[in-house]
Amino acid sequence: MTGIVLVGGRSSRLQAQPKPLAMVGNKLILARIADALRPVCAELIAVVRPDQDDPTPDTALALRMHVVQDVESGVGPLAGLCAGLHAATTPLSFVAGGDHPFLSGTLISAMAASASVQRGPHGPSAVVPRVDGVFQPLHAVYPTVPWGRVFCAALSQGERSPLAVVDAAIRAGSPHVEVWDRDRIESHDPGLMSLVDVDTPAQLARARNLADWRTNVRPGLRPPRGM
Q1: Backbone angles phi, psi at 217, to 5 degrees
Q2: What CATH class is the domain 2-214?
C-alpha cells in the first residue's frame, strides 16, 4: 500500500499557517502522519501545489516522502488525488489530508485488508468511511490504478469534488465502494481519533489538548485499593 498525503492546501482558515506544519503534541502534524503511515505503507507520497513556496515540500522530503505536484493548479484536492495515485506503485493507496494528526495504523491496515477481500468486477474495492451521514473521501483506501483513472477522468470533465466522484460510484455500483460506518471504524479506532482534522485555530487548540491528554494519561493506571 502507498500512503498519499495531500498537503497543497492554502490553509486560509488557519491564518495562512500551513496545516501540515502546525505543532500537535510537540511534533509537526506532517511528521505525525508519516510516523503513523510508515509501518503500514511501502511508500509515502506528499502531493503539493505547483506554486507552493512554504516549507511543506522540503519538510516532506526531510521525512523521506516522495513529493509530487498536483496535476492541475487551483482546483482542489481532486487534482492531488490524481497526482498521488498516478505516482503510486502499489495495488492499493491510502489517501489522507495533511491535517489529520491522529491517524491510526490499526484502522488503516483493517481498511486495506477489507479492500483486498471485497473484490468488485475490476479488482479490490475502495473503502470509504461515512460518519453521521458524511463520507470521508480523504481518509480512504483506493485501488490505485482504477481509481486513478476514475478521479482523473472526473477532473478532466470539470468535476472538482472527490466526494461527488465517490458518491457517483456508489450510485452506479462501479467501481465498487465499501462504506464503513461509525461502529466499524470505532471497532479499530475508539473515539474516531483518526478523523479529527485541523482547519481552524479552534480545531488546532482542541487537537493540542487531545494530544496532551493522550500523552499524560498512562495506560493501565489504577487508583489505590480502597478508593
Answers
A1: -90, 120
A2: alpha beta
